[in-house]
Amino acid sequence: VLYLFLNHKVFEENIANFPKTVAAIKECFPRHYTHAFFSALTPGSHIMKHTGPSNRMLRVWLPLCGLEGFRLRVGDTIVKPTAGKCFVWDHSYEHEAWHEGSETRVVLIEDVWHPDLSDAEVKFLGTLQNCRLRAGRHLAEMAQAEQSGNDKANPENDTYFEIIEKARHW
């Protein structure tokens, strides 16, 4: 995954490398959910079935390349994406993916607020999300303050925010 935006975090270096993509996202999706990233999936991969956390957003896919042998199941529907043909789906439905092709599949993923939500509802839910993220960061900082220097060196003890920060430099 190469993040452009994630939970209100802006990956400046990545954005600098894809200015036209970011401009298109901002122009096409004024109610974007602050999640946008490139997703690469290597041949032979299987993403196990799972669901997104809620139906407050929809997932927009722009398949780019490596799609031969790739399929995505959303609910009871199997999708075989076509390069350059965008599609949207509800991330809260159970979904999984298989890639049996020979090339790495690359997709641009953009999450947008569900169109059935009013602007007031989006503002309210966005505020709740920001509060949850700030509280999580505060708890993580408190936990770090209690850890010894040796515990911090163990990647298994990384917090959500440390993992995201490390992802900036991948």
Structural account:
The protein has 170 residues and is an alpha+beta fold. It has helices at residues 12-17, 19-28, 119-146, 149-152, 160-167; strands at residues 2-6, 9-10, 32-41, 46-50, 57-65, 70-74, 77-79, 87-90, 95-99, 105-113. The longest helix has 28 residues, at 119-146. The model has no long low-confidence stretch (mean pLDDT 86).
Largest sheet: 6 strands, antiparallel
Spatial extent as radius of gyration:
18 Å
- Level of helix content? 25-40%
| Global structural class | alpha+beta
Widest β-sheet, arrangement of strands: 2-1-3-10-5-8
Taking the alpha carbons of the first and last residues, their distance comes to: 9 Å
Gross morphology is: globular
How many helices? The count is 5
Sketch the topology as an H/E string, one letter per element. Answer: EEHHEEEEEEEEHHH
Mean pLDDT, to the nearest integer, reads 86
